[in-house]
């Protein structure tokens, strides 16, 4: 493979994109070459979606250069990018389900016959075009009748017009059956043959190695690695994604976790058995003893968040049992889990956590309100007491309990949410990315608090993409892949190296795909858009 | 450009039944049938009541032009041999429409005419469809109470192609008489306004301050009834001043609310001209509530419903100018003459009756 | 952005937030002041009575609307529910005034519960569900009572036009409803839940709140309150008129709610502001009528108020 592949069709230099409070892209370089498939990988929030959106004109850029065929370029709108030959196929297929397949395919560029749509010709050409993508259907039927996979192919066929130079695919296989994945790969092969540059975004490493030529790894808005994929070890790729051996590992100093906890014996605080949910979880079992912090490891989409949601009654299960202190959770739904003593601090603070219009006080008391009420009447005195207790204990910085929660910093909002859950006096606390997007000081405080809570005898489940946090915070780490447990580290073996190794081993010996249930791959976690 | 209706209520959505709510409500409604007759309101009179109050043509107001079978085209017919189609524009939910439809149906029965009917529920597109349906069901004569005056061209052409005579009632269709349609039978709303003014002048002896409760804004009935009233007051009674004009939307509630405000800002008002009975009755309720005695304020209204006429008897309303909805006899008479090859006037304006304290009691059974 | 311009923006946000919360009272004060100075006979007990009586149904409907809007929903069917309740008062009068009123209220609650069930369980958008109910409800009312029916019941008549302690019954009832809704919002679990559901439904779900039950209850309450307004109007009119009762009241009610400081996006509810908003709408109409201005002015004035309120309430710049 020649190292010099001539002029890239699309070249990005030092792309910067800022969102209020975050730098989503901090100077990213990217070269796309004709006839090569370029993988774009990274953990949640690394900047993949942002990069694509900046390339295709959805977002404006705050810095950096773009060159198309060596000439400066830049697209103000997606339409402009499309005209220049950049075709994008998003996860959510944006077609019109009620129109026919052929109409969808030719929407806006229908073959005309004296000003009218030439239906026979359109149908013939549509059938031919789709045939190339392995889709053989009656093109006069409404698109909505087709399977998701076939619809994706229509979207692909529509996007890849004759003029397409670059085709960008964002998680194209997430809703496809294995057979359809195979067809897609054939299509990608054909695009490559036509000299089109393909960008392939996926967290399924197996697929990347099967179909991609080059790879760019994004982390925290930086391109931390770029080069040919062949020869890049799987283990090293994972390490790059997780950022273990970056020179700046020690960036914010060590975590504030104190070390191992005194784990009490007796009944586990939490027992989860054989949690199974279609496409998401495949028989996950784990238990947490009182005073223990159990970490969940794995890559994006491995089922970490789903496991927490399943335990908290927020994910409908086909199978599986959850018990707290040996007593099965009775009933379904989040209310039942909360009654049983399970609290979940969700991953997405803004959309699943705070109620923006309400005060700090109301936000803290939200889940505990029934316990602070009698006969449906709220006892303001008891609410005040609980709120002031937790504001003090968590050192929440606000002008007072009546300040609106949306006016607080991210870290203080997170503490308000922690207070909401601690006010329930739970036996089990599930923390999904508890320190993401908060400042260093708040991060340290949250980590210290996790220690304290464990010492108080709570069972804690910790999910974090920050390996350091996971390794130092957890007494034990359960590793997930594709919605199943693939390994466990405990005691002295909880180290970053061992963890990366365990994750990689899980990836390296992929569980054989269960073809019958439509690609048992984990459901995609949606990239958090900031 | 829409010539809006004979007054009636403001537009409202078409009735349609939604499953669940309806089911629960219907259940209640069925059990409610047990109510006693006395408790049902006394103004149930509604449909078809007041027999014998046929419309009378106003010879002076009618146009001079006439139409015959020869000019219009087609063959002669005997009414009893043909099928007649009637297209009603609005739901039969107010006395005017109820009486209008009933009058057509009754007259057809009387004459032994085969009548088919439809109701467009205030939906103009629906009325166009209705008329086409009537034709496809074999109607050879059409009586139409149009929702709009415009927009009829396609249907008229279709009817003309088959030489189907069309008679429009209560509202005109814009088109060429004796080409697009045979005749229009209706009231003169300006004249109704003038006659209401006469009654007001009579009640106040030509002196005083008067308030007008207007109908729905943008409605030609409102405009014409206002025009006639103002014209006559200016000409005949310079001593009467119109000090207040507000819309009551042709509803009782509207008449009541506006009058309540009126009584506060113009406590010495002498007369109220309500452009329909409903608003007039609302005004009565408002005056009653404000502690006025019957007759203290002279009310004149237009329509001639039973309840309004009853209020004359009770002394609350001074006079009512009728707007007669009983188009059946005249419409069929016109159709019959036309079918027999006789001349028919292309614009037949009817004489509307008037009720006042001198005749209200004896005429009451004839009000609709 | 420079520090100065940031500060300017903060000040603007504060000003707007103040206007959103208290602008309605300024509006009411201004229109009252105008009338005191320019409208003869405005300052009289009898006039206050008239304004209060006419505002009462709008206030009651707006209260229910405020609760629904606080959950992030909307109820377009309130006018139709008023018509339904008017129809049922007339249908059931044979069983006595009390029974007929209770049945009317029950029907209103049932109609609201149907809205609530479809919104909460089936997850259909509130605007679609209640639009369907708006059409179906009035349609059904007209099927049941095709034309205006006079109500000659002395008890209902007394309720519609009588007073106790110098205050009309309908105003007492409206005041009672205000107190009830204030109590619900300020003191009960239900009150806390409804704003949480409106503020962040997902967070409410994850916090174990009975989101569906809360929505169901809110729409039921809104229906019942609309039925109360329907009974009031029927009693005052001394007639059941499903054709015109409550026509377009949803617009006045939504305006009152928004003008009163409850954002259309939900997440908070202002009861006192809503009452003031309803009074503002009433006084606006009354002022124009009293000064005999053309009816089209009323519509324009209402439009101006809505635009002003929506402008003030529009989402403050996302941080």
Radius of gyration of chain B: 22 Å
Query: Multimeric state of these chains?
Result: heterotrimer
Which class do the helix and strand fractions of chain A yield? Answer: alpha/beta
What is the name of the CATH superfamily of the largest domain in chain A? Answer: P-loop containing nucleotide triphosphate hydrolases
Spatial order of the strands forming the largest sheet of chain A: 6-9-10-3-11-12
Compact overview of the structure:
Chain A is of the alpha/beta class.
Q: What attributes characterize this protein structure?
A:
heterotrimer; A: 530 residues; alpha/beta; Rossmann fold; six-stranded mixed beta sheet; 24 strands; 24% strand; elongated; C: 319 residues; mainly alpha; ABC transporter involved in vitamin B12 uptake, BtuC; 4 strands; 76% helix
Structural description of this entry:
The complex is a heterotrimer of chains A (530), B (368) and C (319). In chain A, 32% of the residues lie in helices and 24% in strands. Chain A is α/β, with parallel strands linked by helices and 530 residues long. In chain A, the strands form six sheets. Chain A has a six-stranded mixed sheet with strand order 6-9-10-3-11-12, with helices on both faces. Chain A is elongated. Chain B folds into two domains: 168 residues, Rossmann fold, CATH 3.40.50; 135 residues, Response regulator (Rossmann fold), CATH 3.40.50.2300. Helices cover 39% and strands 18% of the residues of chain B. The longest helix of chain B is centred in the first third of the chain and has 17 residues. The N terminus of chain B is likely disordered. In chain C, strand 2 and strand 3 form a beta hairpin. The interface between A and C is medium-sized, with 31 and 24 residues.
């Amino acid at each position: 493979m020649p190292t010099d592949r001539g002029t890239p069709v699309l070249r990005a230099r030092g792309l910067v994109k800022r969102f209020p409070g975050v730098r989503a892209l901090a100077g990213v370089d990217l070269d796309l070459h004709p006839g090569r498939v370029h993988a774009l990988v990274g953990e949640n929030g690394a900047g993949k979606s942002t990069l694509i959106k900046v390339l295709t004109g959805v977002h404006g850029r705050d810095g950096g250069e773009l060159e198309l065929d060596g000439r400066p370029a830049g697209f103000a709108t997606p339409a402009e990018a499309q005209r220049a030959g950049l075709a994008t196929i998003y996860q959510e297929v944006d077609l019109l389900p009620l129109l026919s397949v052929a109409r969808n395919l030719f929407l806006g560029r229908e073959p005309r016959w004296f000003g009218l749509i030439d239906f026979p010709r359109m149908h013939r050409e549509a059938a031919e075009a789709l045939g190339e993508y392995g889709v053989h259907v009656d093109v006069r039927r409404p698109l909505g009748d087709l399977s998701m996979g076939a619809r994706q192919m229509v979207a692909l066929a529509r996007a890849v017009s004759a003029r397409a130079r670059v085709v960008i695919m964002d998680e194209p296989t997430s809703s496809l059956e294995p057979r359809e994945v195979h067809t897609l790969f054939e299509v990608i092969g054909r695009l490559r043959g036509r000299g089109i540059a393909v960008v392939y975004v996926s967290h399924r490493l197996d697929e990347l190695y099967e179909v991609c030529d080059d790879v760019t790894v994004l982390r925290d808005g930086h391109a931390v690695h770029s080069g040919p994929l062949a020869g890049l070890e799987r283990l090293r790729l994972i390490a790059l994604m997780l950022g273990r051996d970056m020179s700046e590992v020690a960036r914010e100093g060590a975590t504030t976790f104190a070390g191992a906890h005194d784990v009490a014996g007796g009944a586990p605080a939490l027992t989860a058995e054989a949690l199974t949910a279609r496409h998401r979880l495949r028989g996950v079992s784990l238990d947490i003893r009182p005073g223990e912090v159990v970490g969940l490891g794995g890559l994006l989409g491995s089922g970490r968040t789903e496991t927490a949601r399943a335990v908290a009654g927020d994910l409908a299960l086909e199978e599986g049992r959850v018990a707290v202190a040996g007593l099965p959770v009775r009933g379904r739904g989040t209310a039942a889990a909360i009654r049983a003593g399970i609290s979940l601090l969700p991953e997405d603070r803004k959309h699943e956590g705070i109620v923006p219009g309400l005060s700090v006080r109301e936000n803290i008391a939200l889940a505990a309100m029934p316990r602070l009420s009698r006969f449906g009447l709220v006892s303001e005195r008891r609410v005040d007491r609980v709120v002031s207790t937790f504001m003090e204990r968590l050192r929440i910085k606000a002008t007072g309990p009546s300040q609106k929660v949306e006016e607080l910093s991210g870290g203080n909002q997170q503490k308000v949410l922690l207070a909401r859950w601690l006010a329930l006096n739970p036996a089990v606390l599930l923390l999904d990315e508890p320190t993401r997007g908060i400042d260093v000081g708040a991060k340290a405080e949250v980590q210290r608090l996790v220690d304290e809570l464990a010492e108080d005898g709570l069972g804690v489940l910790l999910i974090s993409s920050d390996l350091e946090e996971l390794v130092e915070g957890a007494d034990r780490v359960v590793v997930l892949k594709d919605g199943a447990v693939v390994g466990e580290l405990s005691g002295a073996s909880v180290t970053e190296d061992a963890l990366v190794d365990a994750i990689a081993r899980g990836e390296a010996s992929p569980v054989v795909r269960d073809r019958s249930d439509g690609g048992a791959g984990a459901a995609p976690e949606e990239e958090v858009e900031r | 450009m829409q010539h809006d209706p004979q007054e009636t209520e403001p537009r409202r959505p078409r009735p349609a039944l939604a499953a669940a709510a309806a089911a629960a409500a219907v259940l209640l409604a069925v059990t409610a049938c047990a109510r006693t007759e006395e408790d049902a309101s006394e103004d149930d009179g509604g449909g078809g009541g007041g027999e014998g109050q046929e419309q009378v043509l106003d010879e002076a107001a009618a146009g001079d032009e006439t139409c015959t079978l020869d000019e219009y085209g087609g063959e002669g017919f005997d009414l009893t041999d043909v099928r007649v189609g009637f297209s009603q524009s609005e739901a039969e939910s107010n006395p005017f429409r109820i009486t209008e439809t009933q009058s057509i149906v009754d007259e057809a029965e009387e004459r032994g005419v085969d009548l088919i009917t439809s109701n467009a529920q205030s939906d103009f597109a629906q009325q166009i469809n209705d008329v086409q349906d009537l034709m496809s069901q074999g109607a050879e004569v059409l009586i139409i109470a149009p929702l709009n005056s415009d927009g009829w061209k396609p249907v008229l052409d279709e009817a003309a192609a088959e030489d189907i005579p069309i008679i429009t009632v209560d509202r005109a269709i814009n088109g060429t008489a004796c080409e697009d349609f045979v005749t229009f039978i209706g009231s003169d709303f300006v004249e109704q306004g003038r006659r209401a003014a006469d009654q007001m002048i009579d009640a106040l002896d030509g002196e005083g301050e008067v308030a007008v409760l207007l109908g729905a804004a943008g409605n030609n009935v409102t405009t014409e009834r206002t025009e006639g009233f103002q014209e006559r007051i200016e000409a005949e009674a310079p001593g009467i001043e119109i000090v207040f004009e507000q819309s009551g939307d042709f509803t009782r509630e509207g008449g009541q609310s506006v009058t309540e405000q009126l009584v506060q800002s113009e406590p010495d008002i002498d007369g109220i001209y309500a452009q329909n009975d409903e608003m007039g009755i609302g005004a009565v309720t408002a005056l009653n509530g404000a502690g006025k005695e019957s007759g203290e304020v002279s009310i004149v209204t237009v329509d001639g419903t039973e309840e309004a006429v009853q209020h004359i008897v009770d002394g609350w309303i001074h006079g009512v100018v009728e707007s007669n909805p009983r188009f059946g006899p005249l419409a069929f008479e016109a159709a019959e003459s036309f079918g027999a090859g006789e001349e028919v006037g292309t614009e037949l304006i009817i004489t509307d009756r008037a009720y006042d304290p001198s005749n209200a009691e004896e005429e009451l059974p004839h009000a609709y | 952005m420079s520090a100065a311009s940031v500060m300017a923006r903060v000040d603007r946000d504060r000003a707007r937030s103040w206007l959103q919360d208290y602008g309605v009272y300024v509006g009411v004060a201004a229109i009252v002041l105008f009338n005191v100075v320019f409208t003869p006979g405005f300052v009289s007990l009898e006039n206050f009575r008239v304004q209060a009586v006419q505002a009462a149904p709008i206030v009651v409907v707006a209260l229910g609307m405020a609760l629904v809007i606080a959950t992030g929903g909307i109820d377009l069917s309130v006018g139709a529910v008023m018509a339904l309740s008017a129809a049922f008062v007339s249908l059931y009068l044979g069983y006595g005034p009390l029974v007929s009123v209770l049945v009317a209220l029950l029907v209103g609650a049932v109609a609201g519960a149907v809205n609530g069930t479809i919104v909460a369980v089936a997850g259909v958008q509130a605007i679609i569900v209640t639009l369907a109910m708006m059409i179906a409800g009035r349609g059904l009312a007209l099927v049941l009572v095709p034309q205006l029916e006079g109500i000659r019941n002395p008890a209902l008549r007394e309720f519609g036009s009588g007073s106790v302690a110098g205050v009309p019954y309908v105003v007492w009832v409206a005041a009672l409803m205000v107190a009830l809704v204030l109590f619900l919002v300020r003191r009960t679990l239900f009150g806390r839940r409804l704003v949480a559901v409106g503020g962040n439904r997902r967070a409410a779900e994850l916090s174990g709140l009975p989101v569906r039950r809360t929505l169901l209850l809110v729409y039921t309450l809104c229906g019942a309150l609309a039925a109360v307004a329907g009974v009031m109007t029927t009693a005052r009119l001394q007639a059941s008129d499903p054709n015109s009762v409550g026509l377009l009241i949803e617009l006045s009610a939504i305006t009152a709610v928004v003008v009163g400081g409850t954002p259309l996006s939900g997440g908070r509810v202002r009861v006192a502001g809503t009452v003031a908003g309803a009074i503002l709408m009433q006084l606006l109409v009354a002022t124009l009528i009293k000064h005999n201005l053309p009816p089209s002015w009323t519509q324009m004035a209402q439009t101006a108020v809505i635009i002003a309120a929506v402008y003030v309430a529009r989402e403050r710049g996302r941080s």
